[in-house]
Model the fold of this input.
Amino acid sequence: MIDNKRCVLIADDEPKMVRALRDFFRANGFCVLEAKNGIEAFDVFCAHTNEIDIILLDVMMPEQDGLTTLKDIREASSLIPVILLTAKGEEYDQLSGFSSGADDYITKPFSPSLLMARVEAVLRRFGKDAQKDIVAGELTVNAMTRTVCLSGKELDLTRREYDLLYYLIVNRSLTFSREQLLNNVWGYDFEGGYRTVDTHIRQLRNKLGVCADYIKTVHCVGYQFEV
Done:
């Protein structure tokens, strides 16, 4: 952090994009560092490693592309979360990004509010505060011990129930389809159907008791967590 503000490094070769993101993040209390290509992004990263909380890295940049820069960053540090920004939406590009060490991936064009929600979610999962307890209403989650407490009493959750609840909590207020939950919680190689998600949601609601309505059904879309 710089001056007690969270710090984001924005690396993108589109000046209008950088200006828009800079103004948006500053308005939301962030300190902003900038780079216009991959080489400059890595130099800024090296100079401010201890201050940077998260990196927004465009994939298609001159001199050195974002994936190459990401690999350089990951050789130096595995702790600072990175979100890739790109106009490409093909599955191959996403898989390449994740295999290179990205923590999330967002396709242009995107709304600033959606990007901020993703940034906050990634910071909760992988950022410097990730080892702290997550408090959501009456629930307290400890990611280190993989435990969830309701009003101070630990819930008896299966591994999959914990994974699903944790994913929903750290991405609170975002709505996920059953397919997205299967891919992100169970994994792309899971061969079960969508009813698996519904069954686990039902089990979680039963165990959450008075907090069951924290998991909301979004009609014809999927589920979201919101206190």
